[in-house]
Design brief:
Blueprint: H1 9-18, H2 21-26, E1 30-34, E2 37-40, H3 41-48, H4 59-83, H5 90-116, H6 119-131, E3 137-146, H7 149-160, H8 165-172, E4 183-188, H9 194-201, E5 213-215, E6 218-229, H10 235-259, H11 269-283
Antiparallel strand pairs: 1-2, 3-4, 3-6, 5-6
Helix pairs in contact: 3-4, 5-10, 6-10
């Protein structure tokens, strides 16, 4: 088996089913000892979170021993490294500081984000989504697609004279919906190209285009036969998506707040690479 160097949901969920989360968080549970020093459950869980996807299928029972062995081996190697003074070498010490900073930063951000992702916040975001019916509007429409504006205007004149839209679509439309009378069925926001969407959603039910609509496909004459509001999914169906959206928003706010009062200056990559090449040449 490969050394265990990202197992995520399966391992954590499996342990969570057997061990209450509050116990894992508050009371350290020993899984092994090295010369009387404990290896803790949270240590092997930290390794579990870095496992590659192929281990996800095994479940915690299939990799528990290897996880503990990996932590034990790392602990023993670190002890040996400190005994040899390796941790005092500047490049190693710098890497250790960088790793420690990253762990601390990730822990801080995770904790701060977690404070904001409450059940109340999720419910409020869901309520906002439900109230925003505009994002769930649908239109049932048909269209006739032709190559020129003149053709489209001539079709509009025929419709004004009482011609049947579906018949004209079957006769004149160059689009794939033509044989079906131009029917596009029902669609929501973001499913059509912008110019077509704006025209269709802006038309009253039962109307057809006053003026042709141009898109990259040609010229359209649109007929709207119905409008509606798509039912909002249940909260449980959206919970993970809402939590993820709130997490991204929270992360952005936290990072923005951290940067207030600090100046971050990024050197151009070209300058950095030039300096690196010069350093490499000087080292030869």
């Amino acid at each position: 088996m490969k050394s265990l160097p990202t197992f995520v949901a399966t391992a954590i969920l499996s342990l969570s089913l057997a061990v209450p989360a509050q116990v894992i968080a508050q009371d350290r549970i020993a899984v092994a000892t090295i010369d009387g020093e404990s290896i803790w459950l949270d240590e092997i869980m930290a390794v579990a979170e870095t496992l590659p996807p192929e281990y996800q299928q095994q479940g915690i029972a299939g990799i528990y021993d290897q996880l503990v062995d990996d932590v034990a081996n790392s602990r023993l190697a670190a002890i040996a490294a400190r005994s040899s003074g390796l941790d005092k070498e500047e490049d190693v010490a710098s890497a250790m500081r960088t790793a420690a900073d990253r762990v601390l930063a990730e822990a801080y951000i995770t904790r701060e984000v977690g404070k904001e992702i409450t059940e109340e916040a999720i419910q409020a975001a869901y309520d906002t989504y439900v109230a925003d019916t505009g994002s769930r509007e649908t239109v049932t429409a048909s269209h006739i697609l032709v190559e020129t504006e003149e053709e489209a205007k001539a079709i509009i004149d025929q419709l004004k004279d009482g011609a049947d839209f579906a018949e004209l679509a079957r006769e004149k439309s160059t689009g794939p919906s033509g044989p079906g009378g131009g029917s596009l069925g029902s669609f929501g926001r973001g499913q059509m190209v912008p110019a077509f969407e704006a025209a269709a959603f802006g038309m009253p039910v039962g109307s057809f285009s006053d003026n042709p609509v141009q898109t990259q496909f040609g010229w359209h004459v649109i007929q709207v036969s119905d409008k509606g509001i798509q039912e909002a999914p249940a909260l449980d169906q959206m919970r993970d998506q809402i939590a993820a959206n709130l997490s991204r928003q929270s992360f952005a706010r936290i990072v923005e707040t951290l940067r207030v009062g600090s100046t971050v200056e990024i050197r151009p990559l070209a300058d950095v690479m030039a300096e690196a090449r010069q350093a490499a040449e000087n080292a030869q």
